[in-house]
Amino acid sequence: MPNPLPKPKLSIIIPVYNEEKTLVEIIKRIMIQPWDKELIAIDDGSTDRSLAILHELSQKHDHLYVYSQKVNKGKGAALRIGFEKATGDIIIIQDADLEYDPADYGLLLIPLLDGRADVVYGSRFLGGPHRVLNHHHYIANKFLTNLSNLCTNLNLSDMETCYKAFRKEVLSLVHLREDRFGFEPEFTAQIAYHNLAIYEVPISYSGRTYEEGKKIGWKDGMQALKVILAAQWHLRRSK
Question: Is 180 exposed, middle or buried (0-12, 13-18, 19+ CB in 10 A)?
Fold first, then answer.
């Protein structure tokens, strides 16, 4: 059983790619949350004003740290930079759009603070309020989650969720290589392999359409499928 964390410092990792329209608002929402925290933003080769906006915001917020990649490499690659820079006791992954609400941090943190969990997933499918969107995307998400569960023997309802919070020491157990959205199944397979205590909590979700800027597509779904199967093969070989 993990130890309780009564007064943790949070490291909030936010990969950014062409999110100039949402950055000011999402960082405002993060900064008003009542936790000791640092926000580590990694611009992933944006071609709009995202990096400039991040630098402007870092002048206003002492605990906002900005890093950048010259070319777009993907969410997983950006997260690895953030993980290397993190100094907090708990890591929270935050998308740069407004789909996920930082007001839900308290829900994510409860099982970590009281010592029940090593890792907490914020599920969009456990009853929290959510915007009604494309059914095909929902079916694809459930298919990938169910396949991941079959391979890992977990019973997650939302493997692909952005909101993953975990103790920093978890990073010493996982070896992440996926550059894009394959991070989600790769991370899930590795924490399952190490038999970590995993919890899910319901969160709200304000999903975007592709016209509004949603970036994950069918190619990412196919890559996630490959990652799930490859991770299972690799981890079985290592046993």
Answer: buried
Domain that holds residue 116: 10-238
pLDDT at 101: 96
- Quote the CA–CA distance of 117 and 3 in Å, as a whole number: 9
- Contact of 156 with 192, CB cutoff 8 Å: no
Whole-number pLDDT of residue 138: 76
Mean of all residue pLDDT scores within the chain: 88
pLDDT band for position 113 (cuts 50, 70, 90): very high
Strands 10-16 and 37-44: parallel
In a domain, 185, yes or no: yes
pLDDT given at position 194: 93
Number of domains in the chain: 1
Residue 42 exposure: Cα atoms within 13 Å on the Cβ side: 27
Identify the CATH number of the domain in which residue 192 sits: 3.90.550.10
Name residue, tokens 């400039």: 52
Asked whether residue 212 is assigned to any structural domain, the reply reads: yes
Q: What is this structure's pTM?
A: 0.88
Where do the DSSP E strands lie in 51-162?
64-69, 90-93, 119-123
pLDDT at 206: 86
Among residues 137, 134, 107, 133, the alpha carbon closest in space to that of 201 is found at 107
Spatial separation of the C-alpha atoms in residues 160 and 166, rounded to whole Å: 15
Closest Cα partner for 122 from 147, 159, 91? 159
Q: Are strands 90-93 and 119-123 parallel, antiparallel or unpaired?
A: unpaired
Tell me how far apart the alpha carbons of residues 19 and 98 are, in angstroms, rounded to a whole number: 10
On whether residue 111 sits in a domain, the answer given is yes
